[in-house]
C-alpha cells in the first residue's frame, strides 16, 4: 500500500455544513466529502482491492466507492485533514488479515480441577440439608 499515491487518488468536495452555526453556515462551505473509487485505484493491487471490498462491504456503494464526510470543525482545511486521517485508518484496518485460530484441547488438569471443585461444592450443599429423623 502506497500512502502518498492513495492520498493523491482521493477526491474532495466542499459542501455547506448543516446544523448550528448561525449565518456562517449559509456562507461558508466547510463540510468536506471524501470519495475514493476502489476499483479505479492504481495504488492498490488486486489482492488488496479484493480484501478491502470484502472487509468494507457495508461502507461501500454499489460502484465500490468509499464516501466519508466531516463537518466537525468550522475550518475546511481542518475537516480535510480529519477526514483524510479517518480514511487512512479505515484502509489500514480493512487490510488487516486476522490470525487464524488454532484449535486446542482442554488440558486434563483443568478438567480434573473443575470436577473436584464440583464435588466439593456438592458435598458442601449436602451437608447443609436437614437431617432425616426417620
TrEMBL record:
It comes from the Bacteria. Gene3D superfamilies: 3.30.160.20. Keywords: Hydrolase. InterPro entries: Pep_chain_release_fac_I (IPR000352), Pep_chain_release_fac_I_sf (IPR045853). The keyword Nucleotide-binding does not apply. GO terms for molecular function: peptidyl-tRNA hydrolase activity. Its EC number is 3.1.1.29. Residues 16-32 form the Prokaryotic-type class I peptide chain release factors domain. It is an enzyme of class 3 (hydrolase). PANTHER family: PEPTIDYL-TRNA HYDROLASE ARFB (PTHR47814). Belongs to the prokaryotic/mitochondrial release factor family. This is Alternative ribosome rescue aminoacyl-tRNA hydrolase ArfB. It comes from Flavobacterium frigidarium. The gene is arfB.
